[in-house]
């Protein structure tokens, strides 16, 4: 039973039966489905640690100098709306788990960057984000809004990256 439950995380019920009851390992569709799930969870595992070095560096230096707050906020918006959209549409965790962990890590980095500028702003940012999460994940939030935000991810990311470059240029000059 434990093996059946474990395989259920990675395979559709039909494929679990193919493998455990019929002992038929030749079904290409089941192999592909299993591989897709394993890779999905691998990406989630990797993303759960992707920003940890940046968090450690910020904590070690007790400074977030050089980071673009606007870029961080836009990134946080992207990850949060992706997480919310996929959850609201009942997608499996393997399809949005990466966004969940990236949102958490980006929140921590943003909170640190804001808090080291002003503790009051850090508290306000936390309160606004938590309130935003409450609205985003409540039945009050129309799926059409989440859909619209999801479709705007690429333009928002472009603005975020331009903000990073502008901050770098402003802080470091043009190299001349």
UniProtKB/TrEMBL annotation:
Pfam families: PQ-loop. The chain crosses the membrane at residues 67-87, 99-116, 128-149. It is found in: Membrane. Its main location: membrane. It comes from the Eukaryota. Keywords: Membrane, Repeat, Transmembrane, Transmembrane helix, Transport. It is a multi-pass membrane protein. InterPro entries: MannP-dilichol_defect-1, PQ-loop_rpt. GO terms for cellular component: membrane. PANTHER family: MANNOSE-P-DOLICHOL UTILIZATION DEFECT 1 LEC35 -RELATED (PTHR12226), MANNOSE-P-DOLICHOL UTILIZATION DEFECT 1 PROTEIN (PTHR12226:SF2). Belongs to the MPDU1 (TC 2.A.43.3) family. This is Mannose-P-dolichol utilization defect 1 protein homolog. It comes from Opisthorchis felineus.
């Amino acid at each position: 039973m434990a093996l059946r439950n474990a395989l259920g995380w990675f395979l559709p019920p039909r494929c679990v039966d193919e493998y455990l009851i019929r002992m038929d390992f030749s079904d290409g569709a089941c192999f592909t489905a299993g591989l897709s799930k394993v890779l999905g969870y691998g990406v989630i595992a990797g993303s759960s640690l992707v920003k940890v070095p940046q968090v450690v560096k910020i904590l070690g230096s007790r400074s977030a100098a050089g980071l673009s707050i606007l870029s961080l906020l836009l990134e946080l918006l992207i990850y949060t709306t992706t997480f919310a959209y996929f959850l609201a549409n009942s997608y499996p965790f393997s399809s949005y788990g990466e966004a969940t962990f990236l949102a958490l890590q980006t929140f921590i980095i943003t909170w640190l960057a804001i808090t080291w500028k002003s503790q009051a702003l850090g508290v306000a940012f936390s309160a606004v984000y938590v309130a935003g999460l409450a609205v985003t994940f409540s039945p009050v939030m129309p799926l059409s809004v989440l859909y619209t935000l999801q479709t705007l991810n690429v333009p928002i990311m472009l603005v975020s990256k331009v903000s990073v470059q502008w901050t770098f240029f402003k802080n470091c000059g043009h190299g001349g």
